[in-house]
Design goal:
235 residues, 5-stranded antiparallel β-sheet, 33% strand, 31% helix, alpha+beta, 6 helices
Length: 235
């Protein structure tokens, strides 16, 4: 059935379309933190995240990284391939910040010589816990070969996005990726890449240009997202 609501998450809604294996994503204005315990709405946030994520998906596709993204169709909507999501969050860290800095007792802002890749089990009831490769094998989430693909893709995406953000004066501190399997079994990048899922710092001032502004009550969220979108317009 066309326009049937298939899934609603914290930041997006997913609808069926008239085309087989094609879904429509609608980006919401909601902002959440602490695994959804804190919620607020910012008019226009969905438009900005759709714009930013679409831009980044298009750039990644231009260098050969396949994703579920098909096209942006409105200010806050895009079409995507229907895929089977893998219940893992793959986090890539280039600079010490957030939970990793707290966990290791390190000061935020320390550069990590070689990017760290982490895995989190997507389960709201468990608050998306950090897990290692042995846990992944025990839970049978992916095969060893697929796990290698996930790690390789995450590092490749990181190497593409670092210079892309660098040219607009932004440091890619860390970011979360999600993946799924296409109809042919190919692992595809999915979900979104936006200030909701990335830590982005101004290279000169270290000003936070991401959802940490909301998480840490550092000011108004919308102008920060607008700044990222504005900088991306020129590349």
């Amino acid at each position: 059935m066309e326009n049937e609501l298939i899934y609603e998450g914290k930041a997006k809604k997913l609808f069926s379309t008239s085309e087989p294996n094609v879904l429509r994503i609608e980006y919401k204005d909601a902002a959440t933190a602490l695994n959804g315990k804190r919620k607020e709405s910012f008019a226009g946030k969905g438009v900005l995240n759709n714009q930013i994520s679409s831009k980044l998906f298009r750039h990644l596709q231009s260098v050969g990284i396949n994703s579920h993204f098909i096209q942006q169709i409105s200010e806050n909507e895009q079409l995507v391939q229907e895929i089977s999501m893998i219940p893992l969050e793959v986090v890539v860290r280039n600079v010490m910040a957030g939970s990793l800095a707290k966990k290791l007792g390190c000061e935020e802002g320390i550069e990590i010589p070689e990017a760290i890749v982490e895995f989190y089990y997507k389960d709201d009831a468990l608050d998306d816990p950090f897990i290692n490769e042995d846990h992944i094998h025990f839970l049978q989430i992916v095969s060893q070969a697929e796990l290698t693909v996930l790690k390789d893709l995450a590092r490749k995406i990181n190497q593409v996005l670092i210079p892309f953000f660098d040219q607009i004066g932004i440091t890619l501190v860390d970011f979360k990726l999600e993946f799924g399997r296409g109809k042919d079994g190919e692992i595809l990048l999915a979900d979104e890449i936006s200030p909701d899922t990335c830590r982005l710092w101004d290279k000169k001032t270290k000003e936070k240009l991401d959802k940490d502004v909301f998480r840490r009550n550092l000011g108004d969220l919308l102008p920060v997202y607008q700044e990222v979108a504005k900088r991306l317009e020129g590349v």
